[in-house]
Amino acid sequence: MTFNRMTTVAALLICLGCVCFGRAASSEGCDQDEREALLKFKADLEDPSSSLSSWVVQRDCCIWSGVVCDNFTGHVTELHLGWSSSWDGSVFSGKLNSQLLQLKYLGYLDLSNNHFQGIPIPSFLGSMSSLKHLYLDGSGFGGVIPHQLGNLTNLKQLGLQAARDYVLYADSLRWLSGLSSLRYLDLSDVDLSNASDWLSMINTLPTLSELYLSNCRIRYIPPLKNLNISSLSSLSLYHNQFAQTSIPSWVFHLQSLTYLDLGVNTFDGPIPDQLQNLTSLRTLSLSGNRFNHPIPDWLYRLSHLETLYLCANKLDGKVSTAGIGNLSSLVYLDISDNHGLEFERGIPESFKSFCHLRSLSLNNVILNQNVSELLEIIAECASDTLQVLLLSSCQLSGQLTDRIGVFKSLNRLSLGNNSISGSLPMSFGEMTSLYYLNLARNKISGTIPTSFGALAQLSYVDISQNSLDGVIYPEVHFANLRNLACFYASGNQMVLKAKPDWVPSKLLDELDLESCYVGPVFPHWLRSLQHLKSLDLSNSGISEPIPDWFWSMSSQFYYLNFSHNQIPGRLSRVIPVVSTYSLFDFSFNCLEGALPTISSNLTFLDLSSNLLSGNLFKFFCFNPSEMRATEFLNLFGNRLTGEIPDCWKTWQSLSIMRLGRNKLSGKIPRSLGYLSSLRSLRLQNNRLSGEIPPSLQNCSRLVTVDLGHNGLEGKIPEWMGQRLSRLSILSLPGNKFHGSIPKEICNLQSLQILDLSHNSLSGTLPKCIANLSAMATPNNDTSGLISPFAGAWKSFSDSLILTRNGQLFDYSTILNYVRSLDLSSNNLSGQIPNQITSLVAIQYLNLSHNSFSGAIPEDLTAMLSLESMDLSTNQLSGSIPSTLGSLTFLNCLNLSYNNLVGKIPSSTQLQSFDSWSFIGNHELCGPPLNAADCCNDSRMPGSMDGEENDEEHALHWFSGSVVFGFVAGFWGVIATLAFVRLSQTQNLS
Fold this sequence. Notes:
Leucine-rich repeat-containing N-terminal plant-type domain-containing protein, Leu-rich_rpt, 11 helices, signal, 989 residues, glycoprotein, 13-stranded parallel β-sheet, alpha/beta, leucine-rich repeat
């Protein structure tokens, strides 16, 4: 016994000695071979911030940055070289040296979120057999994933998420079958479109617990007969756009799932009931699919849910206020942007028990609730936890109260596009965590509270389209907003009073103060904003010239809007632009002088309604070999002279061109035919001459052609109806066109506005006019007249000035819905074809001042959209159709100076018009005409004896002579006045 005890004690002493010796050995530093391997590994890395400066020979490698050693052996076991917010080092690049193979005991390697610029993942990593954790996520590796990784049989966690700028792919995942110990696998953003074996190989990993396959371009989910991954707790198949529309049945058998993300795919129909079998779920995301029907009742019974994302589907119906109250464990709830979800009585009282709530997103869900009541309910238990509250377009009303200040943790607040009124409370300044604020498109009034300046974290603010007024003192209201990057306040009536030395947030990237008074002095505080890229100071009362220092900044902008001010002076000789997509708007100012030279990158330029003069040659023909990116060009309403230059070959991106209302002369150049992208050509109200060049038929995308009020001549080309099949607007009034209206015009199925008035056209109106189907389609918006400039900046639409009832009307925002046919003041003859009544969507019809004869078409009841009809000064005969009285939208009618006879039909509609609508028809009678009732039987021919007839005839002759003399003199004066008015109208248009 004693011997055995002594033996045992000796053995323990020997073991203790070994341990002490091991510790003593480790105190001398890490293994020499491993130190040298790490130094060689470092030599091939690019380390711009010297994050590995501690990696030097003189120091123990176990205390180097990112290195972890075993406490007893001193061997390197972990390398933490991945970039994260907690890592003080830089992002590495370069290449990976195979000396890592010398780290025989390395079990943990993290190189995630670096920038290896598309180099392949080194295959030698597959020989590091001791690895248990390998993270290469987002490190910029490219090419094929090496199959040698399948040799890492001890691997438990593998992160290979690809970086967005580089393509990492696998044609097969067969190598996965060797990783039998794998518990965590992330292949997000890896291209698996050709790896048809992806599911069968993953199914060979029985210990797999977490699987992330987001955005892998997988098109098909195969069925599974034998499910070997039943231990899976987390599954993400987010954003794959599968070909099938049903969730595969094997997903419903993953009973251990706590996390399921099937968002942004093509699943549709009702949310499947089988999902309720996944009783362990804590996170369920089905966002961005096509699920419809109401939210199923069983979902409200998943009381353990912490995250529920159902946004951006087509769900409709009412949200059960009683049911949703059961989900009091929710931390994140997003059911926004569905087809028509609605809370029956707003946010229910049960939300007072949602004490864990951090994010609530209900954008576009109908609440129809008082905003202060809603906030009071949420604040009951979540005022300290709530970080995100998104309630835009929820039909909220009422006023914000000081109670909003209790949300101390709130960092995102969106209440835009509601009917919230009243002023902003001072307690806004107490939400010190707020960095995103959207209150746009409400009815908020009053001034911005001075407490706004306390929100030091604010980065994004949108208070546009409200009724805010008062004075903003930036030194107070923006006192601590040093992180402000985007500020939108358009559509208010505020006044900005900044001291000359005020310096805004240097991070300011986008600033929109449209309709806010900033002037009259040009704001010099803009000079300090070196990061500003988008600026809107339109309609802001500036009446001082743009200083030279600002033009030197212009290259940093992609959006610049100074329109609707009174800015005088000249433009810079050169407007430089760096951005590849940029928009500059200086319209409606007092700018004068010659046109500037613009950068070839400038996409949108609007200099309309200024005082610019000179010719166009230098502007268009400068550097004729350089291709232009310009898509929208508006020089309308200036004083430009000379001919339109013939150098359009380099402007082939041009989509919308407006040169109207200038003093341009000469012919339309043939080189306009190079503009194959042209959709809108506006050259109206100039002094152009000659014929329309045949080369324009190459511009087959044209939607709008407005050449009105020039001196163009010849015949209207037949090819306009053959080659310009997309035309929606053809406006050629006030020219010298002659000949007949070509029948080919009837081919224009999209034509909704045709104006050929005030020319010398002759012949008949083609019966094929019934083929103009857009004029028979009410409010169908088939034209595509809205220009492509939308999204990042405001939407710009095409426009047209039309003459209605002697007045000018500018149609822009509603132009897509206008249907008009104007052939007035020509030499057209023959009958008005009955086929014209099939154009049931026409609102404005003007065939006046021609030589049309015959009867007015009878079947006018179909033209229910007709608002104005002018058939005056023709040779129409017969009676007025009684169907005219059924046109309830008709508010302007002119049938004067024809040969119409009989009694005006009785109807509330027709009798509401003035007598001027019917004068000049000598055989026409009845209200509203004041003439003798010629329809009385006692005055009809044959009702009197001869003597009385003679006396009556003499009296009528005398009266007629007097009336004729009066009318002739009166209308002589009126005609003179009308001619003067017409001249003025043409000058205006």
